[in-house]
Design brief:
The protein is built from three helices and no strands. The protein has one domain: Non-ribosomal Peptide Synthetase Peptidyl Carrier Protein, Chain A (Orthogonal Bundle). By secondary structure, it is mainly α. The protein is globular, with a radius of gyration of 13 Å. It holds the Pfam family PP-binding. This is Acyl carrier protein.
Length: 97
């Protein structure tokens, strides 16, 4: 069983900035394309397994949350909005414990 943990060394990010930071990370990797927060980046054909792992690592490092195995589903990473929702759920899981 995987436990969601909080990294106290990472300052808390206000909820309004979560999607902005994720969007900035994705856009920086693909500057030649305009990517909307609700656009399926996997369907666009830019994402491979290596970049998928980079997304997980970015979320864990930037927001100080471990992504548990049961949350490593493609639907949680299809859009910026989905990733922001995942971070929000992980934050709640930590605050509820």
């Amino acid at each position: 069983m995987s436990v969601t943990t909080e990294n106290p060394a990472v300052p808390a990010v206000p909820p309004t900035e979560i999607a902005d930071r994720i969007h900035g990370f994705v856009r920086a990797r693909f500057p030649q394309v305009e990517i909307a927060p609700n656009q399926d980046i996997f369907a666009m054909g830019f994402i491979n397994s290596l970049f998928a792992m980079e997304l997980v690592m970015f979320i864990e490092k930037t927001f100080g949350r471990s992504v548990p195995n049961d949350e490593l589903r493609i639907d949680n990473f299809r859009t910026v909005e989905a990733m922001a929702g995942l971070v929000g759920r992980l934050r709640l899981a930590v605050s509820d414990s």
